């Protein structure tokens, strides 16, 4: 797993292959060697600068403007200072609907995804080769299901009229009439949760399993000899040696679950018609492309980006502590 | 077997069964409805009462889904090829060379990877419109290359760094040029990583939804599968047979792809995403 650390000598050799030649030729070779990383980086950097960094700057600029349909067509600017941010931050909807939906959902989804992924990883390490392949392929199927089709399938499963869940619940005598799961904010997000966990836990399972296979067998055996039970062994040996894996998995899941979009937008009422199920991402999109308030939508997008930036900084600090970049 | 062992096997067996049901049921239900003659009218049981291909024939012919599949394939292939080349070159630079601003470059790549699509969709919509590429596949291809690039660079650099430097030195001692070394030493060794990143950029291009919806909104003949699917939903929202048949057509290629590259994908993830 040590992939990045190289000895300085090795780096020098690979960086200037022509070292040792005669004077002028050598100088030329060094110049080429110094330019080479930039030549290799140039195409990617140009694409990233034009289509990622500049748009990021632009969304910030838009967020300080009253950027509506007129401006988007004409390209005019109409700066209004921080009005969009004031409007977003003083909108009661933000505090009573959007933020709780975004934050509570992210917390619940991360907890469930990581817990289920870890349990599956532990289960898989205890299986025979054959069953491990079977379970591995099955979770690949869950992982491979695109978010768009996955969402439609879960909507169909919970469909108010003919969904299998309603049919089973009524068949079991637990309900008298079909229930519409999508109008209520809590049951709406329950379905989003099942959908996101179903799609997201395979990544956690595979990553944690790779980490588990790397845990020292000798230490586990020694602990068992000393009389430590499986739970104690897990929390005292396995878990500490997986700390790095867990940190990364938790932070990545947090970032993904904070910006869940399609899984909400594609559900009945999720595209803005049922405002009680809005989250930050959908709110930004609906205000921009639904209401033509691109400036206001940009301000919300900037707020979402800032939240994710904070999480990313934590992520980087954790990575930096462990490994040189 | 000892009683304790039997008990353990029963528990493990029950857990595996539960897990298989949870992971596989949505895929099963999707396909079962897609082949069910009665799914359109909404009467369904756990097993299709009457198998049929009508749902597929309908979405491919009348629904125009064949065109959407073709569009998505064009976009995905173009994105895979371009982002593989760009991210391989860039990852060699950051993994093999020490140069000024290298760390800041890596941090930038890591940070842009976290940017939410919602923040990019507004300015990119304006940008693509200014380039007169709205409602074209080319506009979408450029956008997808950009969003799959940071992840590709980040993941591939682990693979590039893992290539033993001694092999490179040996190639140089044999008189190979840098490009020669790159082609015959580096490239074969980073192939597994290239496969893994290509899978991810393929999936991005195949599944992406927000940008496709925003940028192809005005031309239904340019729809990709992800937004083409929406057509069968909504107005005649009871036609679950069509929605599920179209979903099956979208999902199957990805699933087959994932299962084939399962091993490489896991090692790629561990080498790239986790360890950095």
UniProtKB/TrEMBL annotation, chain B:
<feature type="transmembrane region" description="Helical">
    <location>
        <begin position="73"/>
        <end position="94"/>
    </location>
</feature>
<feature type="transmembrane region" description="Helical">
    <location>
        <begin position="106"/>
        <end position="126"/>
    </location>
</feature>
<dbReference type="InterPro" id="IPR000515">
    <property type="entry name" value="MetI-like"/>
</dbReference>
<dbReference type="GO" id="GO:0055085">
    <property type="term" value="P:transmembrane transport"/>
</dbReference>
<keyword id="KW-1133">Transmembrane helix</keyword>
<protein>
    <submittedName>
        <fullName>Sugar ABC transporter permease</fullName>
    </submittedName>
</protein>
<dbReference type="InterPro" id="IPR050901">
    <property type="entry name" value="BP-dep_ABC_trans_perm"/>
</dbReference>
<dbReference type="Pfam" id="PF00528">
    <property type="entry name" value="BPD_transp_1"/>
</dbReference>
<feature type="transmembrane region" description="Helical">
    <location>
        <begin position="185"/>
        <end position="206"/>
    </location>
</feature>
<dbReference type="InterPro" id="IPR035906">
    <property type="entry name" value="MetI-like_sf"/>
</dbReference>
<keyword id="KW-0472">Membrane</keyword>
<feature type="transmembrane region" description="Helical">
    <location>
        <begin position="132"/>
        <end position="156"/>
    </location>
</feature>
<dbReference type="GO" id="GO:0005886">
    <property type="term" value="C:plasma membrane"/>
</dbReference>
<feature type="transmembrane region" description="Helical">
    <location>
        <begin position="240"/>
        <end position="261"/>
    </location>
</feature>
<feature type="domain" description="ABC transmembrane type-1">
    <location>
        <begin position="69"/>
        <end position="261"/>
    </location>
</feature>
<comment type="similarity">
    <text>Belongs to the binding-protein-dependent transport system permease family.</text>
</comment>
<keyword id="KW-1003">Cell membrane</keyword>
<keyword id="KW-0813">Transport</keyword>
<keyword id="KW-0812">Transmembrane</keyword>
